[in-house]
Amino acid sequence: MTTLTHNQQIKTTMDRYEPSVTISTVEGMARDCDWETEAEAVKRCRENMADPHCFGHMLAWANKGPACLDSDYPGKAAACQKKHDDYAEAIVIYDGEIVLIEGRTMKAIYTRTECSDPVHFFEV
Questions:
Q1: How far apart are CA 49 and CA 60, in angstroms?
Q2: Are 15 and 113 in contact (CB under 8 A)?
Q3: Considering only CA atoms, which of 110, 84, 82, 85 is closest in space to residue 96?
Q4: Does the pLDDT at position 66 exceed 90?
Q5: Can you tell me the distance from the alpha carbon of 95 to that of 10, in angstroms, rounded to the nearest whole number?
Q6: Rounded mean pLDDT of 71-83?
Q7: What is the spatial distance between Cα 114 and Cα 62, in angstroms, rounded to a whole number?
Q8: From CA 82, how far away is CA 104, in angstroms rounded?
Q9: CA-to-CA distance for 89 and 109, rounded, in angstroms?
């Protein structure tokens, strides 16, 4: 079983170019932002998921960075090479794959390549 962590880059079999798709977790966001403890963040999200009138919040998700064309700038070649290398080293996550994130067993479900969150994760 693949283990994923907060801020880890992944790739999918539906990628048409080399997007930056990064794993985010509620616990990781709590650590990064220091808004609340990890336990408080998970409790709040679980309460939101249970409320039928609330959109809810996933415990783990994937964010895709934007793709854009830009002009030349000092260091651009190195930056482009780093993005290419990061993508090449990223783990491929398959649609329906069972993964471990923050100690939870989750199923990866592809959405669409056009979405900013191309992979959703659901507890199993």
A1: 13
A2: yes
A3: 110
A4: no
A5: 13
A6: 87
A7: 13
A8: 31
A9: 21
